[in-house]
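Page 37, continued from 36.
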């Protein structure tokens, strides 16, 4: 995909002016993501949404999340142990790896299917195979030879709406901003993970399930 120069200030001004119109059209007509991408491309620019709030929350919560994961890892599948072991093997850019494990551990701790939110594929996979079956989530594209991360993309309804994202936590922040803008429901398979990010990280809702309230209590007691 060829990149174009964007006048971000101009686009932001126009997006702010038309926000109520976009929300009304999206809520009432429920268009496909591909249609919104065509009609409102500014929704999918990296500068939109609640990035600052999410990153501040992640910075504060990462030590608590990792402490909680380590304390309870025996209660979960081997998946949590593997995730923590991979973190312990890192020798550089430790802070970024800690943040990534903090968010990737959420569906494991909440006993949901991690692959429904975080997907991986090889760079040589066909485009349709890369996104097939992904309702919403973060797609990491790996090099065929050494599993080096080549790209991180955001997928909604089997459509790549953002690519060249620097890391997984950043991709999640974009994802939840877009879910609000597009009025999309959380997939049932990762309902509690989505609710946790919405309620605890983004502070976009005061209502949450008993499972998420319990998780929040455990987290804040660390």
């Amino acid at each position: 995909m060829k990149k174009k120069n964007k006048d971000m200030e101009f686009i932001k001004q126009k997006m702010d002016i038309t926000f109520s119109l976009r929300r009304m059209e999206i809520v009432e007509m429920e268009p496909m993501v591909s249609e919104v991408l065509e009609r409102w491309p500014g929704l999918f620019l990296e500068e939109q949404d609640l990035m600052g709030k999410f990153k501040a929350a992640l910075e504060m919560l990462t030590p608590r999340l990792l402490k909680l994961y380590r304390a309870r890892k025996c209660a979960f599948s081997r998946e949590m142990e593997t995730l923590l072991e991979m973190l312990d093997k890192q020798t550089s850019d430790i802070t970024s790896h800690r943040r990534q494990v903090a968010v990737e551990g959420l569906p494991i701790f909440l006993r949901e299917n991690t692959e429904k939110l975080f997907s991986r594929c090889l760079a040589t996979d066909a485009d349709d195979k890369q996104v097939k079956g992904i309702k919403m989530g973060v797609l990491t594209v790996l090099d065929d030879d050494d599993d080096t991360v080549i790209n991180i993309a955001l997928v909604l309804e089997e459509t790549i709406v953002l690519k060249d994202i620097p890391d997984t936590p950043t991709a999640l922040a974009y994802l939840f901003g877009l879910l609000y803008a597009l009025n999309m429901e959380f997939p049932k398979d990762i309902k509690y993970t989505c609710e946790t990010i919405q309620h605890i990280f983004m502070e976009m809702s005061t209502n949450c399930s008993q499972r998420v309230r319990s998780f929040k209590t455990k987290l804040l007691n660390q």
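The chain has one domain: 10-220. Flag for discussion at group meeting. Residues 10-220 form one domain.
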